[in-house]
Amino acid sequence: MNLTLSAKQWVAIGIVLMTQSSRVVHSQVIAFASTPARNHAYIGQEMKLKNVLLDLQRHYGVEIIFEDRLVGSVNVASSSLDLSLPIERNLDLLLGQNGLKYKRTRKNTFVITESKAKEAMPVKEVKDEAMNLPETQATGSLVASAGQAAQMVVERTVKGKVTDEAGGALPGVSVLLKGTQRGTSTGAEGEFSLEVPDGGQNVLVFSFVGYKSQEVPVGNQSVIDIKLVPDENALEEVVVVGYGTVKKSDLTGAVGTIKADVLQERPASSLNQGLSGRITGVNVSSNSGRPGGRANIRIRGASSISVSNNPLYVIDGVILNAVDLQNGSTPIDYLNPNDIASIEVLKDASSTAIYGARGANGVILVTTKRGVAGGGRVTYDSDFSIGVAPKKLEVLNSKEFLAVEETIYANAAKYDPVGWATGTKYTDPKLKRTNPRLFDSNGNPLYDTDWQDVMFQKAFTQNHQLGFTGGNEKGTYGAFLNYRNENGIVRESWQKRFAGRFVFDTQIKPWLKVGGTLGYTDQNEKQIDQLGGGGITTMRQVLEALPIIPVKYDNGAWASNRDYPGMEGGDNPLRVASERLFYLRTQTMLGNMYASIALAKGLEFRTTVGTNVINQRRDYFAAKGLQYISNNGDASVINNRYNSWQFENYLTYNKDFARIHSVNAMLGLSWQHVDRFENQAITQGFDDTYFQFNNLGAGASPQAPQSEGTAYGLNSYFARINYGLMNKYLVTFTGRIDGSSKFGAANRYAFFPSAAVAWRVTEEEFMKSVPAISNLKIRASYGATGNSEIPAYRALAGMANNVSGVIDYSVIFNGSRNIGTGIARMANPNLQWEKTQQVDFGVELGLFSNRLSFELDLYRRKVNDMLLDAPLPLSSGYSSIFTNIGSMENKGIEFAVNSTNIRTDNFSWSTTFNISVNKNKVLALSGGSDIFSGATVIRVGEPVGSFFGRQHLGTWSTAEAEEAKKYNMLPGDVKYADLNKDGIINDNDRTIIGKGIPDGFGTFLNTFNYKNWSLTVDLQYMYGNDVLDRSIHSAEDRQGIANSYKTVLNAWTETNQNTPIAQIRPINAYYTTNNDSHKVTDASFIRGRNLLLAYTFPADIVSKLKLDRLRAYASIQNFFVATKYRGYDPEVSNSGSPFDQGFGLYDYPKPRVFMLGLNIGL
């Protein structure tokens, strides 16, 4: 039937169609993270819910999908949020009170829907009395087009369900009849119902932001169920890189990222501890389990033999130099980990070259929390924990110790016949057991003290974090306070820390933004694992103290090993810990100010000023009479002052050209100045403990005060350009010129360039037909970086008045000695940077909408011009020269897998597995000669710092008596390999017997979520690393003068000859301190790093408690260790030197920690 429509009628039709089109087609108003996340506490006081959701989306780096009709008119009435919590908790608080809910459709996508699912309604028939359209009895709708009369068409209903790649319902999907304005959207359960014309070539178009659109012919189908495939281009995670940010999909380098919510899964006392196992290629090893124990970080292996191997740390743009403070601490140890919003680890040359001379060891960028627009609010987080010793080492009890002593006496004639023949050198030990304070009248011991039980304690720790945030669209602020009180599992060790930080950001003008950060930390600690004379530490005394003595006698006097005749060793460990005081107080201030000026569209100028100030004081006192530590009473005070400031300016230009070409360019310059001053005063001769270190003048024998000051500067120019073609082909060029005052006049400046390319294969048309592959990117990079972290003035001649007791410049004048000064170190005007060249090849692969993702990196890093303070012959008149002496390489593979194994409405299970394999090798040394340092060697073709010693073959048997005699040995003696076959066992028979550097390490992490519960099981592993346990020579080889390991009970006897432990004998009968393979143990391990169970309380309970959030959790850290190493823990490292990796010497045990925590929003 033909109809003639008036203009008024056509307008009416248009209004109706546009209204329906707006509801259906434009119902999805979506936002994606395309700017750096703002990681702060937030309150939305009378703010649009839509704006709050967009802010949450930026912070968490996720998709939040919603219909504008649902949230556009909703205001949030003073809802307090805390962005340190999981996003699910914040969505519960926001949506529940407004009749809304969310559904997680995949890993990083959340869909907002109404709480009660509403049936999807088809587009209604267009009716208007002004049109004078006749009514019809048939079911139909109006189909009109220009120049064509409206016709009534018979229709039928098509129903169905739309799901995601995992089979989960997708609400809010647009379902449109192709070629028309008719459509609907799916309900909360992903179901839809739509009336379509009967017959014809009907096609339904399904579209959903974040997923690829699909067209499905209707045909004769009345039920259509489809599964949408994610469009990974819709989500752009932003990563912080040096002097800017970049979309993760556009990265051409190897960069690892950790967000705050991941760090909070395993609360840690320092940033380094929090990094452990999180990122491939990053190996974290703690050198002590004491409170605040330092950790060493290696990114892709060791790169130097004498200067720092630690990465460069950059906190909110402020560079922390690798300065060594007291007790091996560094500036990063004093950053409050609770303040961290995100961490980026730059690993390859493409990403680290922007830091040039300081990027060779990798770069760790830390972004701290800031404020967010909204009304003021308060957050509070706390945790309480108990630490316990995970194990005890087996040492002799009183009965066993006395039995060993008797065996020594019985074997004395065999091993020391001359001494035995005198009749006075050895005494039957039973005759010594007459002290009534230690033995009864029959010579039986009165005590059987377990010194590990005495010294180990349940260590209570509390940690509190308070945050205040707020602001508006013009500016934000944040103030954060932290208090931590941690006790050690060994008595008399503790650490207390107070930290505060204030941040602000203000949009003064549309073109001008300024902001700043100021942080302060005051940390006090008492340490007990310090070396005394004779290598005495508290932990050594724990294992060597005699079991036959008590802690104190009845009269209150301290007991000592020396109370039993013939014994060696210091005082009992509790006295050592109580009367040797080692206090360390560190006050730090870290701050910066910035101004950002928008010069033109896409062109920004940024200027920043940053500073890092550290004041550190070490107070030491040892009471009179502590054996091997302080015979006369010692006291000292050392003060360190460290100041660093930097001034940086750079321009950034961003431009997209017709969506084909994209350019991001940056050009800048930087100045930095560092100075340090140390002074110390030492006094001896304190008869009592009254003054301690508080009045050094009270000591009878003051020493000459000492002081040292250094300063250096760095002048830099840097640039980077990122270019993208059609979002497929990516190129990055980076360059930095650094000039440092530390190096020779001829080599103070150096240029460090890099280049990288990447190909986003999944953007190619030929990949569109492979829906299983959701992401595939191939990248490669090559570049050069440097290592400038040498002490100042090493290029200059060094003055001294005494060089290691070898060169003495003092002179005798008028019968008295006068201190003189001479040139000890030769100048080296050609001294230059250590240079690192690195090539990296990487592949990123995502399958099944990234439910299964892989990342693989292959790299080779070569270090040239390694620096060493090389000794010179005395005939030169100098002791040493700092020079460039060789090269080494690291080659490795990094592999990571992330998978979502199960995901339903109420349950999910995800897994992360990663492995890092690194092979280190010295390539060249000047002159080709080995370099020795203690028990390690640097040798061409071998890993740096390999253990060097004799090959322990066991013990000589009685059947080998004649062969043993050739080496002046007896059956029962240690049997060493005669490697050079000269018939003599000496240092010429030493060889490489192990290495502390692991072959590989990684993490196996599983997370389970069920409704409001979550369970995390975090496992760590390492393999191919050895430990050289230097405690064996004292606790196993030197029987009878202190307590020993229980392994001596397996010593050689006539009936037990197949043993590695020599026959028990007097200490002066062939006692050796040789480093040998018996002291080296395979220290490969699997560790239960963290077991965490958490519960997030529902919104209704939280509301009744007048709170905005409430989360409780319980965790066990270090809940098991499986290893062959028999010491306390296989992760041992005495210092930051590559020479000392894997050295064990009476280490402070790592605790097993039971923790309870609360996250509360007020």
Q: What portion of residues is helical? A: under 10%
Give the C-alpha Rg.
Answer: 36 Å
Shape: globular
Structural class of the secondary elements?
mainly beta
Q: Characterize the main sheet.
A: 22 strands, antiparallel, barrel
Approximately what portion of the residues adopt beta-strand conformation?
A: over 45%
Q: Mean pLDDT, nearest integer?
A: 84
Q: DSSP helix count?
A: 15
Distance between the termini: 68 Å
Question: How many β-strands, per DSSP?
Answer: 63
Low-confidence stretches: 1-5, 7-44, 117-152
Domain TonB-dependent receptor plug: 248-363
Domain TonB-dependent receptor-like beta-barrel: 599-1018
Pfam families: CarbopepD_reg_2, Plug, TonB_dep_Rec_b-barrel
Subcellular location: Cell outer membrane
Please characterize this protein's 3D structure.
By secondary structure, this protein is mostly beta strands. Among the domains are: 140-233, Sandwich (Immunoglobulin-like); 234-370, TonB-dependent receptor, plug domain (Ferric Hydroxamate Uptake Protein, Chain A, domain 1, Beta Complex); 398-413 and 423-439 and 951-989 and 1033-1074, no CATH class; 894-915 and 998-1030 and 1077-1162, no CATH class. It contains 15 helices and 63 strands. It has a 22-stranded antiparallel barrel. A 5-stranded mixed sheet has the order 17-22-23-20-21. A 4-stranded mixed sheet has the order 1-3-6-5.
